[in-house]
Design goal:
single chain, 6-stranded antiparallel β-sheet, endopeptidase fold (from Nostoc punctiforme), about 150 residues, alpha+beta
């Protein structure tokens, strides 16, 4: 299934981002749920349906992701979902507002998913305190077109 952005996707993305300014919470405001909620608002397609409501802790998340994707690693989860929904990989330097990026986030450098912001310079990434704006181009490992 190929995704297509809705007519007013910019407003939909902005609204989705504003709804996720809460602190990190497994299953409702983690990097996967945030990015997939943004994609849902921009396209009308719930690419997170397979995972929604199925975990509320780190251990549950690992079990759920491993069961669906064969791995709990965020990169493997991203590859699984983007392939399933035919989201094409793009060079990080060509990612645009609303595209999905995989980048190191947090103090330990663990990978996370983010959404490219409207300025095309930053990605929005969920942190323990809420959303962070991160300059992504120099650090992102991968990007996918929405």
């Amino acid at each position: 299934m190929t995704l297509r952005r809705v007519a007013h996707w910019q407003r939909a993305l902005r609204d989705a981002v504003h709804r996720h300014h809460a602190p990190f919470a497994w299953g409702t405001n983690d990097c996967c749920s945030f990015v997939c909620d943004c994609v849902l608002e921009m396209t009308g397609v719930d690419i997170y349906a397979e995972f929604r409501g199925k975990y509320s802790s780190e251990l549950d998340a690992q079990r759920t992701m491993r069961g669906a994707c064969g791995s709990a690693e965020i990169e493997a989860v991203a590859e699984y979902v983007t392939a399933k929904f035919e989201m094409q990989p793009v060079d990080v330097y060509f990612a645009q507002a609303g595209d999905v990026v995989l980048l190191p986030a947090g103090e330990n450098g663990a990978l996370a998913l983010g959404i490219v912001a409207h300025d095309n310079l930053h990605a929005m990434v969920v942190s323990q305190a809420g959303l962070n704006r991160v300059k992504y181009v120099a650090i992102a490992k991968k990007a996918w077109r929405v």
